[in-house]
Amino acid sequence: FAWSSTRWGERVGFAWYKVGLVGNLKKYFVESQPDLVVSVHPLLQVPSLAALKAMRDESDDPRRIPFATVVTDYTTCHATWFDKGVDKCFVPTVETKEFGERRGLTSSQLVMHG
Known about the structure:
By secondary structure, the protein is of the alpha/beta class. The protein is 41% helix and 12% strand.
């Protein structure tokens, strides 16, 4: 938990995860054409956002699918919950909001509700 929650550990440790999922997620998103993608697990931020970016890069369609995270941890959070590429990040407590701010999310991205 601690190692993979560092910026270095996140980049190195989750590179394999991103590679293995991006193609399948992109295919699913193209087929299903969601109005919104919501993640409730910290390990799905990076591959989901990469798949959505790949879709935008490979398409002439200007439509952008919004991405939201719902953080389900109340105090101690894994760093991968907080990716600057999200449109909205819903957090349950002041502690998780502050952690998101330290990870670089803006006040317009963070929504405390809980």
